[in-house]
Amino acid sequence: MLDISEVAKRSGQPSSTLRYYEKRGLIQSVGRRGLKRTFEPQVVDRLALIALGRAAGFSLTEISALFTRSDGLNVDREALLAKADELDKSIKRLTQIRDDLRSSAACDAPSHLECPNFRRVMKAAGKGLIPPLKGESPSRLSTSD
Amino acid sequence: MLDISEVAKRSGQPSSTLRYYEKRGLIQSVGRRGLKRTFEPQVVDRLALIALGRAAGFSLTEISALFTRSDGLNVDREALLAKADELDKSIKRLTQIRDDLRSSAACDAPSHLECPNFRRVMKAAGKGLIPPLKGESPSRLSTSD
DNA sequence: GTGCCACTTGAAGTCAACTTCAAGTCAAGA
DNA sequence: TCTTGACTTGAAGTTGACTTCAAGTGGCAC
User: Fold this and answer.
1) Do B82 and B59 fall within a single domain?
2) Which protein residue has its CA closest to C1' of C18?
């Protein structure tokens, strides 16, 4: 049995997060030693699973659903594949945007507005064909914080 | 000259967003017709530019900075390229996660925890080697809303 | 001239995933 | 025995990008 600080250490999550996850039903403590929560070592694997889900872009709500629909450690394979497909779409779109960004930068028209490529991109962006990545900027993705 | 609802129609952004953008200094109205803001048609291009930036993952603050550092329509090419590089990293990471997700789903070990691939993934995720895509889930990326 | 209705405002609310805070508790070491 | 300090709690705060709200205004059709 592990106490919360041990789980925090092993999972890399602060205990505030662990308490939050427990409140959300993502993990369970098995008892108390005095005031302190006690966790089974297994919870560390579960937290790794949650971290993977978050990395793949699952929301905590989606992750709960996965757990509910599964036996607790084995996750719905269908859902995994569906998420992989979603990621594929994201990747394609990001690739497109990246390329557009590069050709916009490379375009030597006097104004970006006169660059045919840029106009096309803007038209697409304006029409919502490139819906924004809401939330945190992807720069976060490349910083290991 | 366009009024706010015309700009909204042409840009696809609700007028609340336009007012918000103006407050943030991302766009400017040129006058009033009575109470109503008046915009130059050019603002539609600017909004398209903003939409592109958002799609590429720039925050509104970053976009302001780009405008400040540029002449208003031509954007800092360096910044564009830097963002493209950032997107490259994001894409690589998402690709990795996607593949991990697929091999986890395909793995026929009795438990995911016994799948060597899955264990590796979880270890990486747990160690923060795959920092989460915070904010909105990428599913948003594939829905054209 | 008068009523409609799209606009105006600042302030407050929303969402997700946490973090921070203030106040309290309790096992354990000196 | 008493202090220490890591834990506990619920509530409130944070961030970014907006949206929603309540109350007010004014051009324009009738």
Assistant:
1) no
2) A17
**A109 pLDDT more than 80:** no
The span from the CA of B102 to the CA of B107, in Å, is 8
Same domain, A102 and A53: no
Question: Is A73's CB within 8 Å of B111's CB?
Answer: yes
Q: Cα dihedral sign for B3, B5, B9, B13?
A: positive
For residue B119, give how far its alpha carbon lies from the nearest alpha carbon of chain A (Å): 9
Round to a whole number and report the distance in Å from the CA of A27 to the C1' of C30. Answer: 37
Q: Quick check: B87 and A77 CB within 8 A? A: no
How does pLDDT run across A48-75, given as a tens digit for each residue?
Answer: 888 888 888 889 998 898 887 665 556 7
The residue with greater pLDDT, B126 or B82, is B82
On whether residue B143 sits in a domain, the answer given is no
Residue type, A139: S
Question: Protein B38 CA to nucleic acid C18 C1', in Å?
Answer: 41
- The answer to whether the beta carbons of residues A55 and B96 sit under 8 Å apart is no
Residue A110 CA, distance from chain mean position? 40
Q: And the tokens for B35?
A: 């109470």
Give the chain A residue whose CA is nearest to the CA of B144: A131
A13, closest residue in chain B (CA to CA):
B126
In whole angstroms, how far apart are CA A101 and each of A93, A106, B14? 12, 9, 25
